[in-house]
Amino acid sequence: MATIAPPTTTGVLFSGGLDSGILIGQFVRQKRNVVPFFIRSGLVWQWEELEAARRFTQAVASPYLAAPVVLELPLDDVYGEHWSVTGTTIPDGSSPDEAVYLPGRNAMLVIKAATWCQLHGIGELALGVLGTSPFDDARTPFFENLEAAMNCPPAKPIRLTRPFSKMDKRQVMLLGRGLPLEHTFSCLSPVGRLHCGVCNKCAERRKAFRLADLEDPTNYAAALAPSG
Ligand SMILES: [Zn+2]
Prior knowledge:
globular; Rossmann fold
């Protein structure tokens, strides 16, 4: 008879979006205990994202899944007049990848959630970062360095893991089949509670469903001109 591994708990940084939502869904399927972290940074989309994070975790409810832990990490004081704070000149679907880079954000989000994990006896924090991310602060050297810094004694050991680091968007989306992805949210310029349909993230979202040949259940406020 196979030995049953003792239950362990994994923290997951959850933006309310597709990738981290699918990661949580995968862990729940694997019967891993999960504590999602949603971090409020004062950026223009945070309320819709938080609502989505709550809806999604309720929709995949499981004895293995805790309610999201909501942490505060204001960045509007640092970002000032940045579009993520003002909501003006939001990058659209034709913007280059660099346009949506948020300086320092990955490091700060990880440090905040990882510290919570260390203080609560959780030894792993997982991120839904894809291998195809164009940014250096989503790549292996960055996370290795950050993990080393987080493990300076006397801090409790923590591992930073990225289960999707060798996957592309299509592969991740295919893992999302059967999950309530209609409850995720990924838009830089929400219109009420709806995805705007025209920002850089909405374009990426539409493409993600298309790549995986999945029906897009998102209710967009505006149609987007057909594109490749
Ligand atoms: Zn949008």
